[in-house]
Amino acid sequence: MESNISSELVQPVISKKQLKKLKREEHWVKNQDSIKEKWKLKKKLQKVNRKNKKKDTAKDTNIDFKSLQNGVLNKKALKLSRIEEFKLKLENSKQQIIIDCDFNSYMQNKEVQSLCGQIVRCHSVNKSLTIPFHIFLYNVSAMLHDQLMKAGLEFWQGVTCILKDDKQIDFDMFLAQYKIQKEKIIYLTGDSSNEICNITEDQILVIGGIVDRNRHKGLTLTKADELGLNHARLPIGDYINLKVSKILATNHVFEIIGFYQENKYKTEDVWKESFLSIIPKRKFNNTIETNKISLSDEEDEILLLSNTNT
Ligand SMILES: C[S@@+](CC[C@H](N)C(=O)[O-])C[C@H]1O[C@@H](n2cnc3c(N)ncnc32)[C@H](O)[C@@H]1O
Fold first, then answer.
1. What residue's CA is closest to ligand 1, atom 8?
2. What is the pTM of this model?
3. Which domain holds residue 134?
4. Is the pLDDT at 134 greater than 70, yes or no?
5. Distance 139 CA to ligand 1 centre (A)
6. Is residue 208 included in any domain, yes or no?
7. Quick one: average pLDDT of 277-302?
């Protein structure tokens, strides 16, 4: 008797995954010699790159290349020489920036922890700048101070921490103590009706040291007004369409300022480039509208709630 089962059913069915695997194996069998050659070349190139990198490090830090090559100078010595280099950069820099941390009562414990992480990031970015900032952390609570100490605050160069304790130092006293001229200050706040156009070395910017997911709208604007300080927002809206909110995290604002100062003489588009390089790229829509880049509502919301909470 003849079978009614079609030949299609009898043929073994191969999944897409298996098919891909088979193709890969076939490709390997056919081309293994050339693939091995490519691997060898890649390894050689990596070796040359590593060697060149060591040479560059030696040049940057004035360390004898041979001693680096022989492993005589260990990581600790390199670190020390970087610290010396950073100290020198600080000595030659007049740039000052204030992170106003006087907002402890507006934050939950985990938000204070997140702020600590953001300040750590600011310090780390500051170390990479050609002209670093002298950073003042104003009115740091005991809880934030504990966390900053755990993160190594006592060893940080260029960071002055003003503790909020019983002998409450008000803002004017703080300015007087550190000889900071009030008229040079601009309090950065996303709610200001003024826009900052350019930043000069002698301006002293204040960034709010607060993580509140913008629950407390207008907090820093009110504070700047109460203290009689000039205030301004970043010109984000001129370059990027954020459909929900233009309020960024403390460390992002610090990084934008650092990028701006570092590149303002190198490019005319410095604001645009700083926004594009600091605000995470994966958040961008790539929708170019009249020369602006858009972030969708949803993406902006994610941005606000991402690792570095605002
Ligand atoms: C997370 S925000 C704090 C939001 C807070 N609700 C407030 O009233 O400022 C942290 C700080 O970054 C700065 N900042 C954030 N977005 C800004 C923008 N678009 N322009 C200027 N400064 C901004 C402000 O100094 C702000 O205090």
1. 219
2. 0.74
3. 94-305
4. yes
5. 17
6. yes
7. 51
Whether 87 maps to a domain, the answer reads no
Which carries the bigger pLDDT value, residue 81 or residue 203? 203
Alpha carbon of 45 to ligand 1 centroid (Å):
45
**Range name among 69-83, 199-213, 238-252 with the lowest pLDDT average:** 69-83
26, 125, 157, 249 from 129: Cα distances, Å: 51, 7, 13, 20
Question: Do 50 and 100 belong to one domain?
Answer: no
Q: How far is CA 277 from CA 234, 255, 259, 260, 280, in A?
A: 15, 10, 9, 11, 7
* Residue 212 falls in the annotated catalytic set: yes
60 and 129 in a single domain? The answer is no
Same domain, 161 and 240: yes
* The token pair that represents 245 in the structure block: 């909110």
Task: Say yes or no: 219 and 145 in one domain.
Answer: yes
Q: Which of 189, 203, 308 to mutate to test the pocket of ligand 1 (most atoms within 8 A of CB)?
A: 189
* Domain shared by 40 and 134, yes or no: no
Same domain, 65 and 157: no
Rounded Cα gap, residues 250 and 244, in angstroms:
18
Give the chain's mean pLDDT.
84
What are φ and ψ of residue 234, in 5° steps? -75, 150
Work out the average pLDDT over 153-165.
94
Please report the beta strands in 10-143, taking only residues with DSSP state E, as ranges in sequence order: 96-100, 134-140
Q: Is 235 in the pocket of ligand 1 (CB under 6 A)?
A: no
Catalytic residue among 100, 102, 212, 300: 212
**CATH number, residue 217:** 3.40.1280.30
Give the position, in ligand 1's atom list, of the atom nearest the Cα of 206.
25
| Total number of domains constituting the chain | 2
The predicted pLDDT at position 152 comes to 97
The verdict on the CB of residue 247 being under 6 Å from ligand 1 is yes
